[in-house]
Design brief:
- This protein has 3 helices and 4 strands; from the N terminus they run H-E-E-H-E-E-H.
- By secondary structure, it is of the alpha+beta class.
- A 4-stranded antiparallel β-sheet has the order 1-2-4-3.
- The model has no long low-confidence stretch (mean pLDDT 82).
């Protein structure tokens, strides 16, 4: 005589499907959490470039600044060229906008005298360039 299995011994496919779905969801959650913890949780912040020594201007390590005077700074022609290049890029970001040869006058010895404000503006624009900032106005 064979007996029929009781209802509690019948295979429960719904329970197996639920258990499988829970395992898949758990595995997905672990994968998502590990991806977040390994690469998606931190922001890369660039380190500002800081000058540690004067750059060379020709054979002299002066960055083109020759002297500080009451009237401003005596600089080389190369420094003036760098100032004008920065004015061409960032000059419109100032009010009023800066123009070529901003704050510069030629000296009798062939160098240039720039005002103290022109030096401040140069240092600000040079910091923007080093930080990789684009001009605010096109």
């Amino acid at each position: 005589m064979t007996s029929k299995p009781s209802a509690s011994r019948q295979p429960n496919n719904a329970g197996r499907k639920t258990a499988a779905a829970i395992c898949i969801a758990f595995a997905f959650a672990i994968a998502l959490l590990s991806a977040w913890l390994t690469g998606c949780n931190s922001t890369v912040i660039p380190v500002p470039v800081e000058a540690r020594e004067a750059s060379f201007d020709g054979n002299d390590q002066t960055s083109g600044v020759l002297a500080s005077t009451q009237a401003g700074f005596t600089v080389t022609g190369h420094f003036r060229d760098r100032l004008n290049a920065l004015v061409a890029i960032y000059g419109r970001d100032f009010s009023p906008p800066l123009k070529k040869d901003h704050g510069t006058t030629r000296t009798p010895d062939g160098n240039w005298l720039i005002t103290r404000q022109a030096m401040v503006d140069f240092l600000e624009m040079n910091a923007w360039r080093r930080a990789g900032l684009n001009p605010k106005t096109p």
